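Marked as duplicate of an earlier ticket. Keeping the data here for the record.
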Amino acid sequence: MTSIVISGSGLYTPSHSISNDELVASFNQYVDAYNARYAEAIVAGSKSQLEHSSSEFIFKASGIKSRYVVEKSGILDPDRMRPLIPERADDEPCLLAEFGIKAAQEALERAGREAGDVDLVIVACSNLQRAYPAIAIEIQQHLGCVGYGYDMNVACSSATFGIGAAADAIRSGTARCALVISPEITSAQLNFRDRDSHFIFGDVATAVVVEAEETCRSDNAFRLLGAMFKTEFSNNIRNNFGFINHCEPEKPDISDRLFRQNGRKVFKELLPLVGRVNQEHLQKLGLRPSELKRLWLHQANLTMNLFAAKKLLGREPDEQTLPIILDRYANTSSAGSIIAFHLYSDDFAPGEKGLLSSFGAGYSVGSVILERC
């Protein structure tokens, strides 16, 4: 069977960052205005009084201190509380493509590849900007890649599923060299008026080059030892935004068309599934958890990551074993585990192994085990 490698990775980080203090100040202004506006209804019991948020609450709940965003003025405006993103003409690169191109260019450079070497582009992310044409085909056009491209969405597991799809395409002979790109503009689908979730997400883009080991030009490639995937249906993480909304009767509350989750149920139901998939994958490959130098986990929540790592390793993870980037990036959906890999993989010696694992809505779990070539 053809040996597959990740020969390069790329990361694009927007220039704007929002601290917890900035976010809380905006949110609390909104809360005060809401409570004043509906004071009589709150006293009458027909509306509930909103509570302030705090930086301490956010960090304790998530481990997040700040997040990068595509645009911050609109988010911090208590009368708007969503990014201010102007519409672009059809002949301009869309915002998602722009993010993806920047990450892809770095991945190609690190892999020692030109865009013309790529004959498969997969845009694998949670939040696709439009239904069609595919963002992947737009990126293919702007970069100058050949072959074909398509978009895929498995929520926060999209990047790992995309790596698996790219590896399968190369093994089957339908592609030689693939780009798996995860541009995530998650701030656009976040309800910044919801105290329990307004702090969760950040914007970013990642990319990896996937190819056969025999064609690899990189001196820092990682061999794909195995990939395992699992999905089980759940409504506990959901976003109902879509083109069918255009046909629905109008309603004043459209919060269901933004991100929403039942965090307690997600923790209780999803983490055991993550543990089972990763443990089964290691057993299938004849590996022990102690043979893993590093865990590049989905960056959703600090408590979840620590729990998942401890369950797999049988011990408390240290910072070297479990790098955390969500403190400054927040939850970047499918890009999170790739950010961790991109920033914390250069110190691997040949033969050292790591686990790239994602988990999220669906439920979906992706497990990719890598070995430094």
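See parent ticket for discussion. The longest helix spans residues 263-284.
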